[in-house]
Amino acid sequence: MDNPTVGIENGETLKINNRTNVYTEVNIPRYSYYVGHGISDEVEHLYTKGLPFAKSFKNAMKEYFTNCPKLIGKIEQEVFKINEIAKIVASYNQICLGQISE
Questions:
Q1: Does some domain include residue 9?
Q2: pTM (two decimals)
Q3: According to the lineage, what is the superkingdom (predicted)?
Q4: Is residue 77 part of a domain?
Q5: Cβ-contact 79, 102 below 8 angstroms
Q6: Residue 3: inside a domain, yes or no?
């Protein structure tokens, strides 16, 4: 007897072997954030929200803003939350680049 198959949304078919295969599809919204430096047209990846095994928010911020201990302290103290990326970048510009005095 041939193994039965199951169709999935993307058009592929999967063979099912005596109930030993499990197929799970998880649709988690993902948001990627990128930042630029100065007047350059290039940007760098800052953080991706929604990836199950991605670097944590705090670790991503600490790694990217490593040259700004004041900002890292605020992130560790949870002054900034995961949905406040724009505020974090603005604070970096203020505190660490001295564009506006704190």
A1: no
A2: 0.60
A3: Bacteria
A4: yes
A5: no
A6: no
Domain range for residue 51?
31-95
Structure-block tokens of residue 75? 């992130």
Contacts of 68 (CB under 8 A, 6+ apart): 92, 95, 96
Number of neighbours of residue 68 by Cβ within 10 angstroms: 18
Q: Collect all residues with Cβ–Cβ distance below 8 Å to 6 and sequence separation of at least 6.
A: 13, 14, 16, 23
Domain count, the chain: 1
Assigned domain for 83 exists: yes
Which ranges of 17-84 would DSSP assign to H, the alpha helix? 57-64, 69-76
Q: Note whether 30 and 18 are within 8 A (CB).
A: no
